[in-house]
Amino acid sequence: MSTAALKSKSRRKFKREWLTSYLFLLPALSFFIMFVAYPMVHGVYISFFDYNLTNFKFIGFDNYVTLFKDKNFHQSVINTVVLVLVAVPIVIGFSVFAAMTIYKKHELLRSLFRGIFYLPAVTSVVSVTVVWNWIYHPNFGILNYLTGLVGMKPIFWLGDPNTALMAITAILITTSVGQPIILYVAALGNIPISYIEAAQLDRASSRQIFTKIIWPMLMPTNLYVIVITTINTFQCFSLIQLLTSGGPIYKTSTVMYSVYEQAFSFGNFGLASAMGVFLAIIIGIISIIQFKFLGSDVEY
Amino acid sequence: MKAHIEAKLGTKYNNSKNNKVKKKSFLKNLTPGNVISMILLSMLSIIFIFPFYWIVTGAFKIQVVATQIPPQWFPLDIVWDNWVTLFKNPVTRWTFNSFFIAVTEMVLICLVSTTAGFVLAKKQFPGRRIIFTALIAAMALPKQVILVPLFTLLAKLGWINTFKGLILPAVGWPFGVFLMKQFSQTIPTEILEAAKIDGCSEVRSFVTIALPLLKPAIGALAIFTFMTSWNDYFSQLIITRSTDMMTLPLGIATMQGEYRTDYGVMMAGAALASLPMLTIFILFQKSFTQGITLGAVK
Amino acid sequence: MKMLKRKSLLLMVVVLLVSLVSACSGNNNGGKSNAGNTGASATPTPTVEATADTAEPVEITWWNFPNFTALDGEVGKFEKQIIAAFNEKHPEITVNLEMLTFDGGPEKLNVAIATKTAPDVIYDAPGRIIDWAKKDLLASIDDMFTNEVKADITPAIIEQSSVDGMMYMFPFNTGPFTMAVNKTLFEEIGALDLLPLDSEDRTWTVAEFEAALKAVKEKAPDVIPVGFYAKSQAGDQGTRGFLTNLAGSTFLNDTNDSIALNNEGGVAALEWIMKASKDGLLAPGAASMAASDHNDLFLQGKMAFAINYSAVLKTQFAPNKASDFEDILLPYPTVDGSAPKLEPFLGGLAIFNNEDAAKVEASKKFIDFIVNDPEWSVTALKQTGGLSARNSITGIYEGSEYAYSELARKFITTPPTIADGYAEIRTYWFPALQKVLLNTSSAADALAEFETLGNEAIAKGKAARTSN
């Protein structure tokens, strides 16, 4: 076949290729449009309505105004930010530490530890909360028993406004390090050993090796882990619903929990949708910032 | 041909080559710092194992023992009462529901995601970028945000408290498409081009060339989907209504009364709900790890 | 080559099928939906009012909280027996049962109402039912009450079952909420004389109550004297009952249109709580304790007094007691030892108005069977463990505590659950208690803030009603 003939043939095939591509996309896309995209648009739509058990009335931006005035919602936003600022760095730090420790070890040992740290993530959230509720329990909790052994006074972990959010954060951290550790172990394994050996020949300290060679190589993984962990932390909900119901005095309420509480406990679906839209916008902005800020020195 | 593909795919994600640490450096690894971090890590891992241990042992303690101080670190007399109480509920039905929903979701998601992910990664057509951006954007959003409108939609369709209502919305979630796109990008374009020049149809080259290469990816996605569905709680809570449509996590939650909580029975339920997941994870850790790793690499 | 063609064809077919399922499903209105859909139900139902004796098949949905003790520990088993018995008389009415749970159930109802998929029959407490009635979501069941029946029910209960004189709930099981004491513990520490057990109605003063608490603290230092909790709404009638009697006040004013507790007595009562907490008389960690945690402590013998108890709960809790101690009901103490004001727990059945006359009629027949059938109404009542809402039906149970429960009915007052905006008032109560327990605000400030928020909620509730 001559090249000219080939070209004309490919031009004719071009349109057909599009058609096949669309056909391949069709099933996934129809599900997506019906069960994700349409409800999202509809969610934005109802955020402009006073929509509760009995009403459905257009009220413009009133729901958003209510949000910005609502003290408890402010508290929820603050809590969410604190949760992200505390949990994400700890998750990253811990995961890198764990990965650095185990990535050179024997395959069996690596699998074992990876499995252990992934355990809370595979356990159903209902089961996780039942146990932690028990660990933290003010009267027959194991934690207070242990701290009591070393002479500390009992603390009401989930009931004290000063400790409740941190108690939740601790659980959240245990359920979120599994995936990052797996990623970091893989990323570390991909660093060519010759780099490190060359540096060792140059008498570089292990700290220098880490900061100059290993850390830069981990950058793409860092970006991914930070984005994923941030999104997950923002969506922290079941833990709070099952453990504290947002209390004490709204100290553990997050934006996600507020959405749930407004919609399902109080029946204010319009206001809840407005909160959801607000949350979506915030998550969007943060994700973009993270990509711009961290993605700049990452090569794709 | 096959070797060529493997050469393309292999080196990138194969840790084993790099990890053939020489004896010399193995001895070098036994620095004090390394030993300390290993000990520290082992101590920390107790925090991760303990809740699980407590679930399993708690399932065999009576309420009084379960909540006593000082705690009984190991159940001294193993009782089966909690399990008897648990199985007075339609637990087998709940387990079946959990399985049925998870398996159906798994099959459907793998089907639709593989084709969509493949063309998004490998084909040029108008609207490709827009579609992909929309999918990625939707992924970052919390599911609960769309729950109210989604529920209204399902109510209109009459799908509340049906398997359709429980399964199909999850198929719309774009994570699978994203994962399969990431995987498909590792398929060398040259092979597809070559196949085209040989006169292969689009569909045929997908079936004969892409699918075999995507097998591990489909496996990873299948496990992911199964796990997400199995551990779901929130959407199932809202969409199910009758006892016979409940899934395991919901069933466990029903054992929490307004005026008291039966810890032992809840632990038995929690153990029952966690064991299948744990088994799957242990058996398929490799695919799992691969799935997680590949999803992250651009 | 041919093989491949076939394979690719097959794949195309699968892809097409899947997309057809997803794309065309918008056109079918669901085969069998259990919800009482408006207009979209699969079976055509006559819009004309069905007369009582037509045997036109009707399908209704009944949602039930765990009001009945689970038979043989199996959730829903007893309900199915009732339905079977009902079907012997009315084979034409199919009743679909859905069991709700206390956590998640209320949310499920809210969503169902908002999306017009509410059930037909609901068995719940007046707190929610009256709120729905005010929002015009329920069908009136006024025609189910003869004057004779109405006269047989205490006015306080009638009030809790009606809106503007129109009945919306058929009250079924009731009983006063009280405190409970671990009598065995007091026998062991030789302080039985500190309990008000010699008078028949067991009334006592706050001073006497304090003396009993101090005796526990002194002679049984490992035991918490009295429980308290403020984690969530659950069981808030306990904290409400305890505090209003301590304050010698009511929760709301007589006409239920403003919060009445913010007075000298109310502040003093909250300050009593603060002090008791400091002195170690009150359960530590009460701010984060739920009603269920508090009951657990009592049942394990780790706490002398529980503040949210009743004959029904006593029956339900019997298998969960750690040791075989005797739990005795006591009224809340009052400052001067006068008659306490007790809130009743009340369960009743109501019908959602799903704009289908046939379903409403069938639902009435079903409710009538549960509450009035000579045989099954008694069986069902016993399964709840409660007393009858009808004054004439007594002596169903054995035992001293049921006898006391019957006697204590004379202390029952109208609870605040019937106030406009009550559902919202509830959401401010436990945070106010948390502030006091955690010392983040003074008793006076917490009460003042609660009053402001509560009154706003009442005003909002009233406005919503008039606009309907």
TrEMBL record, chain A:
PROSITE patterns: ABC_TM1. The chain crosses the membrane at residues 21-41, 77-103, 115-135, 264-291. InterPro entries: ABC_transporter_permease, MetI-like, MetI-like_sf. It comes from the Bacteria. Keywords: Cell membrane, Membrane, Transmembrane, Transmembrane helix, Transport. PANTHER family: ABC TRANSPORTER PERMEASE PROTEIN, INNER MEMBRANE ABC TRANSPORTER PERMEASE PROTEIN YCJO. Belongs to the binding-protein-dependent transport system permease family. This is Sugar ABC transporter permease.
TrEMBL record, chain B:
GO terms for biological process: transmembrane transport. It is found in: Cell membrane. The chain crosses the membrane at residues 33-56, 99-120, 132-154, 166-184, 205-227, 263-284. It is a multi-pass membrane protein. Keywords: Cell membrane, Membrane, Transmembrane, Transmembrane helix, Transport. Residues 95-284 form the ABC transmembrane type-1 domain. GO terms for cellular component: plasma membrane. InterPro entries: MetI-like, MetI-like_sf. Belongs to the binding-protein-dependent transport system permease family. PANTHER family: ABC TRANSPORTER PERMEASE PROTEIN MG189-RELATED, ABC TRANSPORTER PERMEASE PROTEIN MG189-RELATED-RELATED. This is Carbohydrate ABC transporter permease. It comes from Candidatus Pristimantibacillus lignocellulolyticus. The lineage of its organism: Bacteria, Bacillati, Bacillota, Bacilli, Bacillales.
From TrEMBL, chain C:
It holds the Pfam family SBP_bac_1. InterPro entries: Bact_solute-bd_prot1, SBP. It comes from the Bacteria. Keywords: Cell membrane, Lipoprotein, Membrane, Palmitate, Signal. Residues 28-51 are annotated as: Disordered. This is Extracellular solute-binding protein. Residues 28-42 have a biased composition (Low complexity). Residues 1-23 form the signal peptide.
